[in-house]
Amino acid sequence: MPDEYNPEALPDLLPLYYKRLFPYGPYFKWLNYGGVPKHYFSHREFSFTLKDDVYIRYLSFTDQQDFEKELQKKCPHKIDLGAVYSHRPKDQKTIKSTAFLAQEKELVFDIDMTDYDDVRFCCSGADICRNCWPLMIMAVKILDRALREDFGFQHILWVYSGRRGIHCWVCDETARTLTAQGRSAIAEYLTLVKGGETVSRKVILPDKLHPSIRHAVDIISKYFLEYIVKKQDLLGDEEKWKKSVLAEDFATVGTNTSTRWAIVKQRLKSAKEKLDLYKYPYVKEEIMLQLCYPRLDINVSKGLNHLLKSPFCIHPKTGRVCVPMDPEKIDDFDPEQVPTVSGLLEELDKVDLVEDDKGKKFRDYKKTSLGRYLDIFDSVLKGLESSRKGKLIEQSDMKMEF
Prior knowledge:
The chain is built from 14 helices and 9 strands. With 402 residues, it is an alpha+beta fold. The strands form 2 sheets. Strands 1, 2, 3, 4 and 8 form a 5-stranded antiparallel β-sheet that branches. A 4-stranded antiparallel β-sheet has the order 5-7-6-9, with helices on both faces. The radius of gyration is 24 Å and the shape is globular. Keywords: DNA replication, DNA-directed RNA polymerase, Metal-binding, Nucleotidyltransferase, Primosome, Transcription, Transferase, Zinc.
């Protein structure tokens, strides 16, 4: 079980974390993207949030050593990543605003559990539990499938935000070079749930169901009944359904969420047979999607200038590390079991110096429970490296043919 983390101890824990556990090598390898172009890392914007919410934007670093030195010096409570600019962000004040331009950035998605507060009844706000976490599992599965199969992206990094949400970084070159219009188009394509608190019908499907929506419904179907019955007891409380058109049926026939959902399906089936629903053929699907489809903060995805929390920083409230997640094993991911900064440092205190057969020392993070999350990160990096090598070979072959 994770240790009892004390937020007041964070200023004392961060120096040790940044000195011994932050994975500088893999992290630099990721953001350097093979060093082509050479300035890719040095033109990247970082922002630091320091103690007492002191916020510093437009930071940039020459190389891994420069980044490592500054991180250990400032010990930020939060790290955010921005775009790769035309100039070094730290020189921003000396450059004309018309010349200082955001050029590239990963295509990113931010999914926050608070956006589901109208459809979850176990928690609200920043709180999460195992009863509402299936919403994040469904979000990963739906978006990962769409990004890979509908758009052809291959190099996707999923990261737990440390508290109540998840982040997605699409790292393919074609994603990093997308225009704002291209990013907006993809984000709009992946957005189904629309409307604020005053809108009751937030999902409106067309007459012909798009294959991507059908795939999403298929994924939700695997979790839906258990989620609404066992996890949320969605129709168990009279307050949740007493204003519904089926309130009388629910009160007299239904006894719990399971039987009441069966009533909903039966009424929809009867209405279809009587042609009452010929204008709305997908009411059941709309209900399922409104309750469970990913709710994106679309502005995060649209803009090149928008910053997003970096992997491997520490959430100051929970102490949890923002760790990578494997989409293939997302059903097994438990946010409550994610290592905390204090727990990791306790692990280090308990382990002896580990050496492999060649006498080579392991990195400190490999000696702790953080190591398995680095394995997920490394698999993404290997995919990116393989893709770069393949592109170089292809370019070489084209030159030889020419």
